[in-house]
Amino acid sequence: MQHERICTKCHEHPVVYFRAYSGEYLCRKCYIWSIEDKAAKTMSKFSMMRYGDRIAVGVSGGKDSLSLLYVLKKISDHHGGTEIIAVTIDEGIEGYRDESLQIVKQFCSKLGVQTNIQSYRSLFGVDMDEAMVSRPSDKMSSCSICGTFRRRALDIAAESVGADVIATAHNLDDQLQTFLINLLAGDVERIGWIYPEPVQYGPDGLRKIKPFVEIYEREIAFYALLQEIPFQSQECPYMHESVRTELREFMNNLENNRPGIKYNAYNSMMKISKQLRAAPATEAEKCSICGRCSTGSICSVCRTASILKQRSAD
Ligand SMILES: [Zn+2]
Ligand SMILES: [Zn+2]
Question: Residue 24 C-alpha to ligand 1 middle, in angstroms?
């Protein structure tokens, strides 16, 4: 007769998940708790949240960001003293974004969370589908255009709802990929930007936080599944241009044969990043187009937008 395996944490309920890197067999309840507890501990370790914060959560409609919204809303409801608002960016990718906007709207109304949607088209005069046609060459990758615009769009969205903080759902895998991309590109300075100590930036001192940075992507996906969080199934049609996708598969293959290797690599990355951590980029000048702080006379967002718009008008 076969016995059902019992959770190694509570010794009560049947197992739903085996955490290979720690050797734990977890029941549903203990698994859910472990994820929420990890996010709370990460936030406390890096002083990410303060009493009275108005937190704008960047919500794309994927499993990571909807799970983050869910977890932060739960913590906020439980402890009080913080307010959660969802901010969503419409990149203008036909078919892909339409599905997720629907999911975001429905999920937010179920949670009772206000949503703010900003689009690349209205903010920068060009959307991603157009950018992919008008970009001067493949060297200007979809992800670099999109990343430049997204950071600015999130800032604007957060400011427009009067937020103190922007929370994004970057997970351990994302951080590790960013580290490896910078390492392979020889971009050592950027490695110093990964360390998640809250950075004050912008005239209003908006803070950026990443509560999921110490959690595996796969574990967030399983959390979303257990909590029945709906999420967009479609992949971004432009994602395969990025070396990120290859690094993601590479690291997951290593992890499958050597559980915990991603966590070890993450810890090494954190030590290196902390050593290299520099003062936030000195952005003394003001961009002559948008008036925001910039490292040159025109900021990278305005520069990118003007290249793309010029060419789409030709
Ligand atoms: Zn348990
Ligand atoms: Zn500018």
Answer: 10
